Fold this sequence. Notes:
Blueprint: E1 4-9, H1 31-43, E2 52-55, H2 59-68, H3 70-74, E3 79-81, H4 99-105, E4 111-112, H5 131-146, E5 152-157, H6 159-166, E6 185-190, E7 201-203, H7 205-212, H8 220-237
Parallel strand pairs: 1-5, 2-3, 2-5, 3-4
Antiparallel strand pairs: 1-6, 6-7
Amino acid sequence: xxxxxxxxxxxxxxxxxxxxxHDMPDPSLTPLGVDQCRNLAVNFxxxxxxxxxxxxxxRRTLYTALHAFPSELEKGMKVIxxxxxxxxxxLPCDTGSDVDILRDEFKDKPVDLGLVGKGWDSKKGRWAATxxxxxxxxxxxxxxxxxxxxxxxxxxxxxGFLHFLTEDWTDSRRFExxxxxxxxxxxxxxxxxxxxSNASMxxxxxxxxxxxxxxxxxxxxxxxxxxxxAMKTWENAGYQQPASQx
Length: 246
């Protein structure tokens, strides 16, 4: 049976304080961000079911996972760094660190960097900041997650990328470049079986009810229209490049 995926946006990083901080390379969490993680550790309702922790290899997502899931780490779990779920833009704040730097920084922490190779932070080729490349990475991440044997998986990633991963563009301008608050969590299951090459996900009824009450979900046509609007907005803001630049 495919797993349930608990998606989480990272806690507040220094780049979230001001757009002028977007020039900061791979920023870490603010003190408020660390407190947000501690609150998530207390309020996240699914700790007893979690059997795998996954995070983007960018520093703020790794530290969010480490601070927010101490009970899982105490059981011997490690945070698996998955480069496909890195943030979408090629701004310095959304560009990761060289894998050798990460290995040195996290050598004494329960982080598995085995899937992170040289060039993952290049923002070129398959890692490019274009809609086509990002959508391909999002699909590869969904397929990878669907193929895992664990039943409940935590995935800590980024506000922009979460819209690509879920294919849900609702409220994408609620915050700067995303509709997800820092440390917000939502739960998803896979819509169809292994024959679905896109590995599409659907938010669980419990998760959606907690967020939206009885509000009716958008139609497929409305979701496509939202996606097109978000793409243009993000390209104009510099959060991703036009596909022609791939």
